[in-house]
Amino acid sequence: MSFSEQLKNRREALGMTRAALADRLGVSVSAVSNYENAGSFPKEDVLLRLFDALRTDPNQLFCDSYRAHGFDLSPAERELVEKYRSLSPIGRDTVRSVTDALCDYRDELAGERSAAPEPRLIPLYSSPAAAGYAAPVLDEDFTYISADESIPRGADFAVRIQGDSMEPHIHDGSVVYVNRDPLADGDVGIFCVDGAMLCKQYHRDALGMTYLFSLNRARADADVVLASTGGRSLACFGRVMLPHRLPVPQL
Predict the structure, then answer these.
(1) CA-CA distance, 69 to 243, in Å (whole number)?
(2) What single DSSP character describes residue 56?
(3) Within 10 Å of residue 75's Cβ, how many Cβ atoms?
(4) Per the omega criterion (within 30 degrees of 0), is the bond before 75 cis?
(5) What span, in angstroms and rounded, lies between the C-alpha atoms of 1 and 5?
(6) pLDDT in tens, 143-176
(7) Model pTM?
(8) Domains plus CATH for the chain?
(9) Mapping DSSP to helix (H, G, I), strand (E, B) and coil, where does residue 124 land?
(10) Which of 30, 35, 185, 232 lies 20 to 30 angstroms, CA to CA, from 196?
(11) Which residues pair with 193 in a beta bridge?
């Protein structure tokens, strides 16, 4: 006899309606109907309540159905069932509450693992103009890249550098990652000076003079010096994220 037939026969033998059994199991009447019509099979936590509600031994009444549905109980599992059946009604309610909470937690974790987060994308600007120049401006060509583990956390965009003015720390053709944190003295940044885009090291002295240094001192000719009252325009697009701070060249 199938599980569904045995379930229905046992319920009727106890004079219990489907609604009464559903209330004992904490499920809908339609769920009980599905159990009895072989439309579905109870989950493990519902089975525990079912054994209790029908006052039956699972290893005898439902043995064949267990095996058919992959629920052939091990000795340890049978021991747990017997311990559950020996508890008071309050103890059984406690076991059911803990079991439900653990199942909910398991399902929540499974849902988090299955819902892969959307990758964060940042723009990679690809229009270098000359040695040490780059162009992270909205009108320039760029592509989006995925900010995976290889990219520094907090990077807002990336710029491809061309030329040797930032050697040996930033190589010709390499990509630097930039965030929008305020610059401190000695930071390397992406700057716009009078409309030209540059990657340089920033320094401001006590007199208000601003220096944009090439890290490659053999290319000191590419340095930019701006007086506080010189009338030239200077804007900073962000700080280049380097693994360590670099000393400012001696003036």
Answers:
(1) 57
(2) -
(3) 7
(4) no
(5) 6
(6) 888 888 889 988 988 888 888 899 999 998 899 9
(7) 0.51
(8) 3-114 (1.10.260.40), 121-240 (2.10.109.10)
(9) strand
(10) 185
(11) 196, 234
Sheet holding 234-240, edge to edge: 142-146, 121-125, 157-160, 175-179, 234-240, 188-193, 196-204, 210-213, 224-226
Total length of the chain: 251
> Residue 187 contacts by C-beta under 8 Å, 6 or more apart in sequence?
201, 202, 239, 240, 245
Strands (E) across the chain are located at 121-125, 142-146, 157-160, 175-179, 188-193, 196-204, 210-213, 224-226, 234-240
Q: What's the token pair of residue 180?
A: 């929008």
Calpha distance 3→25 (Å, rounded): 17
**6 vs 56, 81, 182, CA distance in Å?**
11, 19, 74
| Of 175, 218, 233, nearest in space to 199 by CA | 175
**Rounded-to-integer distance, Cα 185 and Cα 200, Å:** 12
Report how far residue 163's alpha carbon sits from residue 173's, in angstroms, rounded to the nearest whole number: 7
Using one digit for the tens of pLDDT, what is the confidence trace for 121-141? 988 887 444 323 444 444 556
Closest residue by Cα to residue 69 from 79, 53, 58: 58
Q: What DSSP designation does 244 have?
A: S
Q: Is-contact 49 26, C-beta < 8 A? A: yes
Task: Determine the Cα–Cα distance for residues 164 and 66; give it in Å rounded to an integer.
Answer: 73
Query: Is residue 82 classed as helix, strand or coil in its secondary structure?
Result: helix
Q: Which amino acid is at 183?
A: L
Distance separating alpha carbons of residues 53 and 227, to the nearest angstrom? 88
Count Cα atoms within 13 angstroms, Cβ side, for 9: 9
